[in-house]
Amino acid sequence: MATPAWPPDSTPRLFVETPLSEGAVLTIDGGQAHYLSGVMRLKPGEPVRLFDDATGEWLAEARDVRKRDLTLAVTKRLREREAVPDLWLCAAPIKKGRIDWVAEKACELGVDRLVPVLTQRTIVDRLNLDRLRAHMIEAAEQCGRTALPSLVEPVKLAALLGSWPAERALFFADETGGVPAAEAMRARPGPAAILVGPEGGFTDAERDLIRTCPAAVGISLGPRILRAETAAAAAVSVWMAAAGDW
Asked: In terms of Cα–Cα distance, which of 193, 196, 184 is closest to 242?
């Protein structure tokens, strides 16, 4: 008779801010405690998977389980932190719900950094970075990831371009036409970023400004008009395929 897998596939999985190590003891409270004890009905002695975006994924065992908090004892490392492709997604903030979706998919697809970029047609004046990070954490928990994209403060387009690292290719979605995305990305391997505009796209002046950046390459994402969030996911997917990550 085959030995059952341990921990089981049904084991709850959580991200924690605390650096993990064998023998560490963590107290979990708030929403995570409610999820483990109230939703998953976790009992003392049962397993939990944990990851911290630094040391990989770990197995822990529930100890003291109470209504408002519980204790987890880390027993062993299950795997190291995954290698992450060197890709940034620079995306203009869009409406709530849609930008949350962008953050979620950026995590699922393996983006290393998410950079909100303020453009002339950006209509979102406030961006809740805590909410975006929460969406990325949830995606990582559900998809088995051990790494999270870094999330930086919004930056104006001109400032982004003014400090652009020369060694990082900048593929920008050009509504007026450009090199087919897959062709452009195969021709420029190495560190890269994808720049996607807001609803309505970049202005003519912004496109001219982007083209002054030596690392910039205008790309086409096909013959169909894509919404901003679709363009972001599509461009990242093409880059991952060209880089051999798929």
From this structure: 184
